[in-house]
Model the fold of this input.
Amino acid sequence: MSVPATDPAVYAEYESKWSSLPDTEEAWLARAREVSEVLAKDAAQRDQENKSPRAEVALLKHAGLTKLLGPKKYGGGEQPWSVGYKAIREVAKADGSIGMLLGYHLLWSTTANVVGTPEQADRTSQWIISNNYFVGGAVNPRDSDLKIVSDGDDIVFTGNKFFNTGGVVSDLTVLEGVLDGTQDHIFALVETRQPGIQFAHNWNNIGLRLTESGGVKIDNVRAPWANALGWDPASKQPREDTLKIAFPTLLLPTIQLVFSNFYLGIALGSLEFASKYTTTATRAWPFGGDNKESATDEFYILERYGNFFAHLRATEALADRAGEQLSSLYARYQNDKAALTPRTRGEVAEWVASVKIVSTDVGLRVTSGVFEVTGARATASKVGLDRFWRDIRVHTLHDPVAYKNREVGRYALLNEVPEPSWYT
Done:
């Protein structure tokens, strides 16, 4: 099925401009800001056109951001997640959809590091990084699980997912399902462009319009048992050392913090966008009895910007702290996974849950509140200020934040850490 898509040729110049990877945190974040500046030029127009983002994914590849977390020996940046989160945030400032795609890619491209064996992690990293592949995922716990059957040296996936993210524009797709006759889940990466992966092309929501998050049918898609992450291909059983430890469950707080960082990036972007509009187009109110020459002299406008900025600054500090906490777990336990205790894992998960709560609350308040300081004319479609609220509103419904409030409440009141789940 042919669908409208953006043309990667529009960003061809950046392939040579960014021919080498950054080598420090500061340089990586500078590269992410460069990408953000490119995307900001026509973000509103691209949002309205709603084309499949093939060009935007090519831009991420040209910039090397798709390799940011990968090992240096295969051509990656080998940066910690704390840097990855900041890069996601920078890209999301200009375009929430592309910030989200980058975040999901970084998560899926490192899945083998979390739930796989060391050999699988190394082999998967080489596969992704050396080819500069973009990774999507058809993993949605709210749907029925994909069915997996064993067929010789292969596992075979079949089923449907109502949501998948980035799959249409991906090179590889993460599949997840349950092995027939058991309750055991298996993750595996497969090549996206094959007849058994059939996209519905039905993503037409009010926000995050360029994320290609529509449905997908998985029809007898094969993967070798050797690619069943965390499983022994000889015995076709889960490896004992991955069944009884907390480390593989880090996948969930890792992706929850991905969410919070692109929420935060979107909110920061909305304030930056609004401030440019206010200083150039918003007019002072002439009927208040305390008339000002300029909108930037209005007390209520200054007060709102100050309040929004302070709350975003606090959220950013909290997000950075949580990113550092999670990165420290990976650094400490990647080579000694069994040593990570459920309690230590749970305490970091509560840092992540706290960020999710605050970034949701502040993000929604800022992205809707910026209209109060820009004025009625800022609601015009050509301005594009509405896309920030639409983007953050759509994804903050991913899993109810009320449950995160309850979870943190149990931690604060009863000193209980959460049991790992698909959302915790």
Observations:
- The first strand starts at residue 135 and ends at 138.
- The chain is about 50% helix and 10% strand.
- The radius of gyration is 22 Å.
